[in-house]
Amino acid sequence: MAEPLKLKAKSASPGIASGPAFLAEEPKAASAPGTGGGYGALEKAIDISIGELERLADGADAESRDIIDFQIEVLRDPTIAEATGARMKADENVVFAWVATLDAYIGELEAADEEQMRARAIDILDIKNRVLGALAGTPVADFPPGSVFVGKDMEPSRFLAHDWSKGGGIALFAGSAAGHVALLARAKSVPMVVGTGRFSAADGDSVAVDGDGGAVILEAGGMLIPPLAPAGDIKTESGELRTADGVPILLSININDPAEIDALDPATTGVGLMRSEFSVTSIADAANEERQLAIYRRVLEQAGERPVIIRMLDIGGDKPLAGLEDLPALEPGLRGIRLLLARPEIARVQARALLRAAVFGKLSVMLPMVTFPDEIDRMRELFREEAEKLGRRSLLHRMPPIGMMVEVPSAALMLDTFGSAAFFSFGTNDLTQYLTASVRDGNEADAGKAAPAVLRLIEQAVELAGGKPVSICGDMAGDPRYLPGLLAAGLRHFSVAPARRRAIRSAIVGLNADGTRAAGE
């Protein structure tokens, strides 16, 4: 008799659960019904949906109410109504106009760099399906108590409407440990794993969820289904990427979570940016050297021979860390390397974890928000001190190359003075913000208008880099509109969100190294 199959997953909520599988259909939009009532019918469906959510909120705990309040706020958002109205003026059916508006919102979230933002896409999809269900008179059905929910993802309202007192668990092919369902599962002690990959099972099959060890156990006969190769992503045998005129280009990915390392493939040269702050969510995490080591080691081991650049904690300012506000003598507005140097106890723990992790792969360390050369010198000295301590304890370690993010305009203008930096990587999100005196999340129109100034600054900075390795990992790297200018500025290494990799790869092969479009394109 065949042995049960154990599939590796990522724990999203601890605990062990087993039960009959409930195979959920992939979250998708229901067929839009006719709307003889026009916009009034849509408004009524939205009101019904708000009423349903308010009933779910009755007696719910604080975390559940916060999630429900978020969904109600989105349903009442006047900007969504305005965008829908604009589509209706273009002769779109009211329901399709509203769905297209939400689909655009979902697409933006799914393409975001930050995992927390991508995890919110299922919330908007949940809202969309709830309203369409109200329009069609077909609300989403519950599933049997005690079941193990199996699907690509799970809607927060579906979790809240289910009776978990009879047991059960959740196993998601994709999903996120940073999403609202994972938050709810932890609050209600429902075992949950994410990132299993698609596997075969039938309704009623016995399934066990190991939320402690991060695994799914299928009864004999279960199997993992290999993912389909993405269409249109043709690569050479070596995975080498070149411009139309034959200049080699490096294409890496940005990750926020170790699970995202799975987005690497033979056509990807490595991890150009891992934002470590998304794996360190509290002061307690920041103080836990072993936890950080385990995270970095996993990424490096899965990357194999490919390089990985891990950015030290970019916290402070508009990136709060739970418990950070309780630290004494912390000046408001401190962020990035300035905060790490002001609170060296945080930096030393991370430095030790990175030094120990470096023996498991090709690690480089990147410093955030660097403004002055002495900041790099001071951090390098801190690494040397911690390396000596590890040596005295006979702990394996290796000193990694230490480079810097170029996201402060004054640093970009003086890049030739940063002699101790091993490499440079342009963070265009903050660089644009500080160059234009705008908010970080400014609108796209402003970002487009600022692009010529940002590109000019990058071109000057690349010349000042003096031949040291230079890359770009900000949002501009993942936008095909800016590729001609970035190539013309001399950039040959791009690191983008996994969702943007295919688009950027396709765009690069149609351009020459000077940014001009190839003949015939």
UniProtKB/TrEMBL annotation:
Molecular function GO labels = kinase activity; metal ion binding; phosphoenolpyruvate-protein phosphotransferase activity
In its UniProt entry, what is this protein called? Phosphotransferase system enzyme I (PtsI)
Tell me the Gene Ontology biological-process terms attached to this UniProt entry: phosphoenolpyruvate-dependent sugar phosphotransferase system
Q: Which Gene3D superfamilies match?
A: Phosphoenolpyruvate-binding domains (3.20.20.60), Phosphohistidine domain (3.50.30.10), PtsI, HPr-binding domain (1.10.274.10)
Q: Where is the PEP-utilising enzyme C-terminal domain?
A: 240-509
Q: What class of enzyme is it?
A: transferase
Q: What is its EC number?
A: 2.7.3.9
Question: What cofactor does this protein call for?
Answer: Mg(2+)
Keywords of the record: Kinase, Magnesium, Metal-binding, Transferase
For whether the record's keyword set contains Amino-acid biosynthesis, the answer is no
The record ties this protein, via InterPro entries, to: PEP-util_enz_mobile_dom (IPR008279), PEP-utilizing_PTS_enzyme (IPR050499), PEP_util_C (IPR000121), Phosphohistidine_dom_sf (IPR036637), PTS_EIN (IPR008731), PtsI_HPr-bd_sf (IPR036618), Pyrv/PenolPyrv_kinase-like_dom (IPR015813), Pyrv_kinase-like_dom_sf (IPR040442)
**What family does the entry list?**
Belongs to the PEP-utilizing enzyme family.
* Domain of life assignment: Bacteria
Q: Where is the Phosphotransferase system enzyme I N-terminal domain?
A: 10-120
Q: Which source organism does the UniProt entry give?
A: Rhizobium aethiopicum
- Annotated PEP-utilising enzyme mobile domain residues: 143-214
